[in-house]
Amino acid sequence: MKNFQYYNPVKIVFGKNTIKEISKLLKGRKKILFLYGTGSIKKNGVYDQVKEALKNFIFIEYGGIQANPDYTDCMNCVLLAEKENVDFILSVGGGSVLDAAKFIAAAYYFKGDDPWDILKGRGKIDKALPVGSVLTLPATGSEMNSNSVISRREIGEKLAFSHPLVFPEFSILDPETTFSLSKHQVANGIVDSFIHVLEQYMTTDIGTPLQDRQAEAVLLTLIEEGPKAILNNKDYAVQANIMWCSTNALNGILGCGVDQDWATHGIGHEMTALYGIDHARTLAVIMPGLLSFLRKQKEEKLLQYGERIWGISMGDSNVRIDEAIARTCLFFESLGIDTRYTDLDIEEDAPEKIAARIDARRDVLGEKRNIRGPEVIKILRNLK
Predict the structure, then answer these.
(1) Nearest CA among 211, 263, 256 for reference residue 2
(2) Three-state DSSP class for 276?
C-alpha cells in the first residue's frame, strides 16, 4: 500500500425531508447565491423546498447552469457574486451545478489575470467562498469531494481542478429528489459512478485488499440496484442505495493508498469538448477498449474483477478477461448506454482528432503514464 493522506470535511445530511435542514446549516450566513440548473428543480418541488428553507435569509438566484458547466456562465456568476457581496454559494442540482459552484467559489477571490488559469493548473488558490449542496442527480460524487470540471465552449476545452478549499461544507442527499429523473439521466449516473470506481480499482495489485473489497461492494451494489432504478426510479430504497454508491465512488476513500488510472476520463473530456457527448456516455465507449488494450498491464485486477464481480473463473487469462469486459459492456447496454464509439454519431476520424488534442497538450495518461495519442487511437478503435 502506498503512503497517503485522507481528508474529507464534508457533512452529509442523508434521507427524506432533509432539505429543510438548510436553515440550520446556513446559520450565521448573511447573503446566499442560490445556484441551480436549467429548471428541473422547479418541476419536482425541490425549488419550493429550498426557497422555504431560505425564507429567513437574503439570497440571490442564478439559474441555467447547464450540463458540463460553461466557463462564461461561471464568470457571470462570479460578477454577480461580487456585485451582491455574497458570503456563501448554495448549489442545488447535479454534479454540474456543484462543479460550477466550486469554480465560482475559487474564482471569486482569485488574484491572477485570468481565472481560466485555475483550470490549467497555473492559478494559485488562497481563499474560496464556502459552498454547500443539495444533490438531485447522483453521478459525479462532487457532493463529497474537492473536484470540479469546467468546459470553455468558445475554445473547445474541458478541464478539471481540485483544491481542498472547495470541499462543500455540507451536502444534503434526499433520494426523493431523484424521482423525477429520466431513464437517460439515471443510466448516466450509474455508469459514471461505476467507472469512477474502475478508475481507482482496475490498476495494479499492490496489496490493498480492503480498498479492493470496498470498491467491489460499490460495483456489486450498482449492478444489483441499477436495473431496478431503470425500471422504477421512484423506489426510495433503490434510489437511496444508488445515491450513496455514487457518493462513495468518488469521495476519496476508494483511492487511498492505491494506484489510480483516470485515462478514460482524460480521453472522455476531450470527446465531450469536441462533440458535446454526455460525460458518462463517453466513459462507456472508452473503458472497454482501454481494458482490452491494457490487458497485460491490468491482468491481475482484470482477473480478480472477472471472478469477484461476474463469477468468471474458468478458461485461460485472455478468455476470462474478454468475458469480464463483455459482461461489463452488457451491463452498460442493459441500461441503454452504448459501448462502442462507432455507435456514436461522430465523424470517422474522431479518434485521431482526440489523440491530436491530447498530444498537443503533452498529456500522458494512465497509472503507468504510458498512454499518449497513438495509444488513444488504438483504444478507441479497439486495436491490439
Answers:
(1) 256
(2) coil
Going by the DSSP 8-state scheme, the letter that residue 294 receives in this structure is: T
Angle 317-334/279-293 helices, nearest 10 degrees?
170
Q: Delineate the domains of the chain, giving CATH numbers in brackets.
A: 11-178 (3.40.50.1970), 183-381 (1.20.1090.10)
Residue type, 222: L
CA distance readout (Å), 33 to 9, 129, 132, 252 = 21, 10, 10, 27
Q: How confident is the chain (384 residues) per 10-residue block, as mean pLDDT?
A: 97 98 96 93 94 96 94 96 97 97 97 93 93 96 97 94 97 97 96 98 96 98 98 96 98 98 97 94 96 97 98 96 98 96 90 95 94 96 78
Distance of alpha carbon 59 from alpha carbon 56, whole angstroms? 9
Count the Cβ atoms, other than its own, within 10 Å of residue 84: 15
Q: Which of 49, 27, 225, 208 is nearest to 132 (CA)?
A: 27
Q: DSSP of 20-73, one letter per residue?
A: GGHHHHTTT--EEEEEE-SSGGGTSSHHHHHHHHTTTSEEEEE--PPSS-BHHH
d(CA 354, CA 233): 35
Whose grid coordinates read 497538450? 361
